[in-house]
Amino acid sequence: MKKIIASLAAIATVLSLSVASFAVEPGDSNSKAEGTETIKADAATEFVFDNGNEVEAAAGAFEAGKEVKIELEASKIEDNAGVDAKVSEAVAAAAGNDVAFNTKVSITATADGVAVQPNGDITITVADDGVSNAVAYVDADGKVEPIALSEAKDGKVSFTVKHFSDFYMVKVADVDAFLKSADDTTSTEAPAATTGGNPNTGVAIAIVPAAIAAAAVVVSKKRK
Questions:
Q1: Chain centroid offset of residue 91 CA
Q2: CB count, 10 Å around CB of 94?
């Protein structure tokens, strides 16, 4: 009897360890996976990974018939540790200096062994880390792109992008303000004279002094 109990206990332990090895905690660093699909011609192509993460490429995002390989990794972030200072500062500024980085989502794709970027929307679905309410992307120049984070089924969240890179799931105090905080791209150069109003106004203003001066010369000659 004792041998039977011991055997059952051993089996239970093995099963427990097996389940644990495949379980993916929200934002866990072991949630790295890859998937390969042949791109559909007139429909979205779905990549479903063994760990439950998903990527949906809209129709036309990749060349039809191409075999595309996507690699996706979602890594948990503790106390903003490991986040590049430039990224941290840029997002903090856009979010009103109140931001917590929780999950880093890195995604790349190759077609025939060559790195590629999509030409259409890509929807990424990963485990919900339980705290994030938005996604942030920061380009090489420090420009922040705030991205909406949506709830998905089965304890997951999703967001839509137009390129592959590193994205950060974050928690900000005012998510609506953050999503509207796209960097001001207005040029710092002085506006052209024709900007706004009557484009000939500047010319007219320049002509008036010249006309007055010419009239003064004519009057002066007549008096002589």
A1: 12
A2: 23
Query: What is the chain's alpha carbon radius of gyration, rounded to the nearest angstrom?
Result: 29
Smallest CA-to-CA distance from 159 within 183, 138, 133 is with 133
| Amino acid symbol at 82 | G
Model confidence, pTM: 0.69
Looking at residue 124, its amino acid is I
Collapsed DSSP state (helix, strand, coil) of residue 22? helix
Q: Which residue has the tokens 């790295």?
A: 32
Q: Which residue has the tokens 């996604």?
A: 135
Tokens coding 40: 């559909």
Instruction: Say how far apart CA 121 and CA 201 lie, in whole Å.
Output: 45
**Residue 50: other Cβ atoms inside 10 A:** 10
| Closest among 77, 68, 51 to 166, alpha carbons compared | 77
Strands of the chain (E only): list them. Answer: 31-38, 45-48, 54-57, 67-76, 99-111, 114-115, 122-127, 134-138, 144-148, 150-152, 156-161, 166-172
CB contact at 8 A, 125 and 53:
yes
- The sign one gets for the Cα dihedral 87, 81, 171, 76 is positive
pLDDT of 3 reads 53
How do residues 76-108 score in pLDDT, each as one tens digit? Answer: 999 999 999 999 999 999 998 889 999 999 999
14: helix, strand or coil: helix
d(CA 56, CA 128): 17
Asked if residue 124 lies in contact with residue 72, where contact means CB atoms within 8 angstroms, the answer is: yes
